[in-house]
From TrEMBL:
Transmembrane segments: none annotated. Residues 34-54 are annotated as: Disordered. Residues 127-222 form the Flagellar hook-associated protein 2 C-terminal domain. This is Flagellar hook-associated protein 2 C-terminal domain-containing protein. Residues 42-51 have a biased composition (Low complexity). One of its GO terms (cellular component) is bacterial-type flagellum. Pfam families: FliD_C. The lineage of its organism: Bacteria, Bacillati, Bacillota, Clostridia, Lachnospirales. Signal peptide: none annotated. One of its GO terms (biological process) is cell adhesion.
Length: 231
């Protein structure tokens, strides 16, 4: 057996990352043995070739977009960059210049929340390409465990992210910037994998477009409407 498989998993690290969401994703991916299941949310009197329910696909697409949006906010440049230093004046008229740690914390907290939601929902998928994207996200996060820990973000036993607000705000914000801003590897790679999950969910959703017995064509998948009505 080689050192890593098609998901880029290093088997020497298997014992440390086999629990939680990561193991769930791998178990789902390999356990299905390439088999696909029928959608559990088909339209009456119609046929769908989708492996996942329309609800699952809608939530995956929505959560993936949230991850992409949260990373994009951290990667803004120019005047919109969260990592521009600002000058504040206290009640005594004293001026200080530095990062707006409250704004940066809020943006990173939004990222961790979105990330956790996507990992949870991807684990419910029966689509191998979606499972691969989810496993890759968790894999790159695990590879950056030490750097994330340095800025107050820990990876739990379930592989979800938790941010320690006090530790985060005391961190040198240049370290946070190195993890998320501009073209940073971690932020960019997570956003890329989330984009893959979104794209695969859309492709799978197209298979849920079905013909009724009457001959009419029904589009089962409407992200916003379906998402809002099923959560």
């Amino acid at each position: 057996m080689s050192g890593s498989d098609i998901l880029g998993i290093n088997y020497s690290d298997w014992a440390t990352i086999r629990s939680g969401s990561y193991f769930k994703l791998l178990n789902a991916y390999y356990g299905k043995g390439g088999q696909v299941s029928d959608s559990d949310d088909t339209t009456s009197s119609s046929t769908s070739t989708s492996k996942d329910s329309t609800r699952t696909l809608a939530v995956i697409e929505s959560d993936a977009k949230s991850v992409e949006k949260s990373v994009a906010a951290l990667q803004e440049t120019g005047d919109k960059s969260l990592f521009n230093e600002v000058t504040k004046t206290d009640e005594n008229g004293n001026k200080t210049t530095g990062y707006d740690t409250d704004a940066i914390y809020k943006a990173v907290k939004n990222f961790t929340d979105s990330y956790n939601s996507l990992i949870d929902e991807v684990g419910n998928s029966n689509t191998k390409s979606i499972l691969r994207a989810g496993a890759s996200m968790v894999n790159v996060t695990e590879a950056n465990r030490k750097s994330l820990s340095d800025i107050g973000i820990s990876i739990g036993a379930d592989n979800k992210l938790t941010i320690d607000e006090e530790k985060f705000k005391k961190t040198d914000m240049s370290k946070v910037k190195a993890m998320f801003a501009d073209s940073s590897y971690y932020g960019t790679e997570v956003k890329r994998q989330a984009g893959r999950a979104e794209s695969y969910a859309k492709s799978e959703a197209a298979k849920a477009n079905t013909y009724q017995k009457s001959g009419s064509y029904t589009y089962n998948y409407r992200t916003g409407e379906l998402y809002n009505s099923t959560i």
